[in-house]
Amino acid sequence: MAIVICTPSEAEAVAVSTVHLRAMDENLLTHAQFPSPEGLGFFHAWLENNTLEHLRDDDKGVLVAKDEETGDVVSFVKWLVHRPGHDEAVEEEWPEVARKEYLDPYAALTERVRVKAVGVEAEYYHPTYICTDPRWAGRGAASLLLSKVQELAAAENLPIVLEATMNAVTFYQKLGFEVIDELSMMLPPRGSTEPTEFYEERCMIWVPQKGAAI
C-alpha cells in the first residue's frame, strides 16, 4: 500500500472521525466518557467539528494518511501549538449522553501534567489525537504523520509534548520520545457506572536536536 500524507479536505472530516472511533474502540477512557451508542454518535459529530477547527485555526493542525489507490483516510494526527499568553481554555458544555465527570477531570489532569513538565510559559507542540484504522495498523502511517509534526516543531525549535496510551508508549519511544510523567484515573469498565478500573497514560516529550535530520 502506498501512503499519501496530506491536509484533509473539510469533506473528509467525517472519515477522520470514523477512523478515530475505530482506533479507540477498545480504549477504556473513550467508553467511560461516551458510554452509549448515542454518546458515541455525539462524539463522532464532536470530532468532525474538532477536525474542522484544526483546519481553520492558525494554532492548530491536522494531517491524514490516505491509501493512494483508493483515497481512503487510514490514519491522522491532530495537534495544537501552545504559545505563551494565548488563552485556549474553553469550557465545554457536554450533553447528558456524555459523562462530564470523566471528561473534565481528564482534561484538567493532562493539562496539569504538561504544565508540570514544561512550565506555564513554554511554547510546544501538543498532538491531541493520533489514530490509525486497525485494518491498516503496522504499515507505517502513524510514523509518517508524526514525523511531519516533528519536522514542523523542529523548524521552530520547539518540543513536542503528548499523552500516550500505554500500548503506544513503545511506538513513541522509537520516534525519540521520552516518558517524563504518569497520569491515572479510576474509570468504570465498559457497560458499568462504577469506577473500578485503573486507567493510566504516560506524558512524553520529544526535543529537537540541533542539526539532526528527522
Give a structural overview.
The chain is globular. It is an alpha+beta fold. The chain has helices at 13-23, 28-33, 37-56, 100-118, 141-155, 169-174, and strands at residues 3-6, 60-67, 73-82, 124-132, 160-165, 178-187, 197-206. Helix 1 (13-23) packs across helix 3 (37-56). Helices cover 36% and strands 27% of the residues. It has a single domain (3-206), classed as 3-Layer(aba) Sandwich (Aminopeptidase), CATH 3.40.630.30. It has six helices and seven strands, in the order E-H-H-H-E-E-H-E-H-E-H-E-E. The model has no long low-confidence stretch (mean pLDDT 93). One of its GO terms (molecular function) is acyltransferase activity, transferring groups other than amino-acyl groups. Pfam families: Acetyltransf_10 (PF13673). Residues 63-206 form the N-acetyltransferase domain. This is N-acetyltransferase domain-containing protein.
Describe this protein with a few key phrases:
214 residues, alpha+beta, 4-stranded antiparallel sheet, 3-stranded antiparallel sheet, 27% strand, GNAT_dom
What strand line-up does the widest sheet have? 1-2-3-4
- Write the element-wise H/E pattern from the N-terminal end onward: EHHHEEHEHEHEE
Distance between the termini: 23 Å
Kindly provide the radius of gyration, computed on alpha-carbon positions and rounded to a whole number of angstroms.
17 Å
- How many helices? The count is 6
Per the CATH scheme, the topology name is: Aminopeptidase
What is the count of structural domains?
1
CATH superfamily: Gcn5-related N-acetyltransferase (GNAT)
The chain-level mean pLDDT equals: 93
The CATH class is Alpha Beta
What class do helices, strands and sheet pairing give? alpha+beta
Low-confidence residue ranges: none
Count of individual beta strands:
7
- CATH architecture identity: 3-Layer(aba) Sandwich
Give the proportion of residues in helices.
25-40%
GO molecular function: acyltransferase activity, transferring groups other than amino-acyl groups
InterPro entries: Acyl_CoA_acyltransferase, GNAT_dom, Trichothecene_AcTrans
Protein name: N-acetyltransferase domain-containing protein
Organism: Trichoderma asperellum (strain ATCC 204424 / CBS 433.97 / NBRC 101777)
